[in-house]
């Protein structure tokens, strides 16, 4: 289902293609995040126009709202949110361990309190896969335990046992090789935890890849550790993952983080940064980041990014967008969110092209030169 | 510039066409309201797709933010907000008399305190026309005094003198007949005040039409009076306005208010109801109003309105939209706002067609039968 098409001959950056039940996903790929079955502030049409081939949604959030019953009646998540391309769903491990005010890890699963209404829930690896079956996600993620930085070696070791046990139980529910149709066209990825301890990351890679998944996610990164450590752990972990499987760096990141990870051989990304920052007026451009609320833009009639062809840049000026933020008008955050996911998609698309032409390193350097000016 | 094309032979409803510097406006026409140079929550593309041929913006708000300087540098409002079709701008009379916390009517104009930052301003009839010249609105409105219901006869009489004086001074700034290009292609309407006193309305019509404007607005309606009185005053005033000029009922209203006014010979409407209610989850449909936040819609997979072909109805279900409101996602209020302005545009377009075919009365009855079921 994943085919590695080309490796840039000057390094480790890769271009490939993933075939899901809903189409082709060219890698490297950035997935906009639609936690609650909507990419915040954007319509499906806008996300499609940005070029996104796959989006990310979150099983934990959707389990709480609208819940299993409605998603089942809707005929799955694609129908519910009217998105015809690929969807990956996160299991909610990260959310349970960051949002839920009370939680208790037990052998069978994790007991937690909903961050919305305080109701008690018990989530097991089996239950979250079953729920992702109902969602019909193209790529499912198993339940895992996601720790925050900093954390002691012994805690990470203990936690890895849980994550491995849950991964085994999740893997048992899938039968490979997958058939041409039906629910087994849903893929399942394995998640590599291990904190900032290289030897524990190595152990996790051995254990998880031993189970045989459709792809591998590097989890527990960008959970509070310094940028240097993010890069180190990513580089190390990506370097020991199997070559022929897709590699996904969870929850990362800024344009610079992505370029750095691509050069370490990572294929897939998701991050809330383009939409979250967009809602605050921060735009990513080929010449760096702009805070469009700021006064210098009040009479700046250029588009957000003169090199961008998105709907926002084709039609609206920085001055107008600043006015929209200044007057608290929704269109402002819509336009910057839209521009930002287009910018991310273009950055990743340009990276792919550069890899195919064996010039990723030069492309990255040139991008950084302009971006950090 | 306005051509009355047809009168329904069973009543007073009219169909016509207004030619502005930015295109044709078929009447009856509904203008979505973009107070601060944006139709709340919607993009220009969406408003265009709704069929809107003219929108409404507000000179008072734009005078305060972003202000004259920026709008001048932008080359006017059409450029600033990237809207290529017609724009009417209200003078801000209504806003000064409803939003500004402190105001004092003087002979020359009105002194008021900004509702945003408390700064003091002095607005004159000349100044607001000058500002609307900078905006480049296709239709400008003169400064008027807008009173709230209830108000004594003597106060209305006194106020009419001010409004008439200001209308005269505004009219002097325009030279008619208008040339084929340049700033005089901007039209100016006269505003009829007079509260709920028919004889004062009559006096206002005589005085204001005596000055000769491009069209006439019925102002000071829907300012707190009971629905019955709104209809009475509209009927009376529309009935004594000149036949060959466009008639605009300011700030009205619900679908029922519009149909009622159309049958009294009103041509033009603006109202915040479709977008304001849309942001609260209230949808207008051919079978009445729906509050989409309500529980009965949680597993209702029909579109908002099965008779509607808008983007929201083509792609999304009531259940999904309810989920979006439930989770406070912006797309929810976007979709209902969009649907509502499409619904209004279709209602007004269907009315026009019915008038052209001399069946407006039957159309209205049939609409009401379904709508009020």
Question: Explain this structure to me?
Answer:
By secondary structure, chain A is α/β, with parallel strands linked by helices. Chain A folds into two domains: 29-227, TIM Barrel; 272-362, no CATH class. Chain A is built from 15 helices and 16 strands. Chain A has helices at residues 44-49, 59-64, 68-73, 77-81, 93-98, 125-135, 153-172, 198-211, 227-240, 255-262, 273-279, 311-315, 318-326, 330-356, 360-371; strands at residues 2-7, 14-20, 23-27, 29-32, 54-58, 86-90, 103-105, 110-113, 120-123, 139-140, 187-192, 215-218, 246-249, 268-271, 282-285, 288-291. Chain A has an eight-stranded parallel beta sheet. Chain A has a three-stranded antiparallel beta sheet with strand order 1-2-3. In chain A, strand 2 (14-20) and strand 3 (23-27) form a beta hairpin. Chain A is globular. The mean pLDDT of chain A is 95. The interface between A and B is large, with 38 and 38 residues.
Q: Gap between N and C termini of chain A, in Å?
A: 40 Å
Structural class of chain A: alpha/beta
Q: Any idea what the CATH architecture of the largest domain in chain A is?
A: Alpha-Beta Barrel
Task: Return the average pLDDT of chain A rounded to an integer.
Answer: 95
Helix content of chain A: 40-55%
Query: What is the count of β-strands of chain A?
Result: 16
- Compute the number of helices of chain A: 15
Specify the oligomeric state. homodimer
Classify the beta-strand content of chain A into a percent band: 15-25%
Sheet with the most strands: spatial strand order of chain A: 4-14-13-12-11-10-6-5
Could you say which overall geometry of chain A the principal axes of the C-alpha atoms support? globular
